[in-house]
Design goal:
The chain is of the alpha+beta class. Helix content is 45%, strand content 26%. The protein has a 4-stranded antiparallel beta sheet, sandwiched between helices. It starts with a helix and ends with a strand.
Length: 140
């Protein structure tokens, strides 16, 4: 495992433990850890992008994908300093499978949910793009 991947997974799991204590993570929940880089458009700051993501994108996804909680994180130190990360907490593996297939692409239900977020997604695309890698983790 690459050092950067190991660092980001460790940081996310530590954050998850803190969040899990407060929100009672249940055995069988599924955590999708997505991390990567944000490519901002001119005249857009990272704070503007992050603020919009947290105030518009997160609630829109959660509203249109029942059983999914979205958490945003930022890398502070190490190889992933300033990396942008999003954690998707699914109430079960079945809920994840409802929205995403085994290749990670949207299912029909996932496409229908994302169509409802189109207006917010278009605004986000005017601010920048996000490229990520991910791993899904089943809570034991």
């Amino acid at each position: 495992m690459k050092k950067s991947t190991s660092c980001i997974i460790t940081m996310m799991l530590m954050l998850l433990c803190h969040i899990g204590y407060a929100q009672s993570l249940q055995k069988g929940s599924l955590l999708g850890l997505h991390y990567g880089n944000v490519n901002l458009h001119p005249d857009v700051t990272m704070n503007q992008f992050k603020s919009f993501y947290m105030s518009a994108v997160v609630p829109d996804v959660e509203k249109n994908m029942p059983g999914v909680k979205v958490i945003v994180a930022k890398g502070l130190r190490g190889e992933n300093e300033n990396a942008f990360a999003v954690m998707y907490l699914f109430d079960s593996e079945a809920t994840r499978n409802k929205y995403f297939n085994t290749e990670g692409a949207l299912t029909d239900a996932g496409k229908a949910a994302m169509e409802k977020t189109q207006a917010v997604s278009e605004k986000l695309s005017k601010m920048g793009t996000v490229t990520t890698k991910y791993t899904d983790w089943l809570i034991q």
